[in-house]
């Protein structure tokens, strides 16, 4: 008789967690590359709309960061 262990209760959760982490890592790498390329905008073409878009991105990232680090409105 083979003595095999049953899969751990959290195997599905662990796999889902790692998949979500990979998605975050890929997204962060893409954002870093886009930022390094000045968000695909030539300095001579920057206008107030670009500033607004970048401020919006920064606001969304700040929300994520505040949640992850329990800062801002997520502070305990």
Task: Give a description of the structure.
The protein has 76 residues and is an all-alpha fold. The chain has two domains: 10-40; 44-76. Helix content is 63%, strand content 0%. It has two helices and no strands. The protein has helices at 11-36, 48-69. It is elongated. The N and C termini lie far apart (53 Å). The model has no long low-confidence stretch (mean pLDDT 92).
Quick structural overview:
The chain has helices spanning 11-36, 48-69. Helix content is 63%, strand content 0%.
Arithmetic mean of pLDDT: 92
Low-confidence segments, ≥5 residues, pLDDT <50?
Answer: none
Question: How many discrete structural domains?
Answer: 2
| Proportion in β-strands | under 5%
Alpha-carbon distance between the two ends = 53 Å
- Indicate the radius of gyration in whole angstroms: 20 Å
Give me the count of strands: 0
Largest sheet: none
């Amino acid at each position: 008789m083979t003595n095999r262990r049953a899969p751990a209760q959290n195997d599905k959760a662990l796999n889902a967690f790692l998949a979500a982490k990979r998605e975050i890592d890929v997204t962060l790498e893409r954002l870093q590359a886009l930022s390094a390329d000045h968000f695909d905008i030539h300095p001579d073409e920057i206008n107030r709309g670009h500033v607004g878009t970048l401020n919006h991105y920064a606001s969304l990232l700040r929300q994520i960061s505040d949640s992850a680090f329990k800062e801002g409105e997520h502070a305990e």
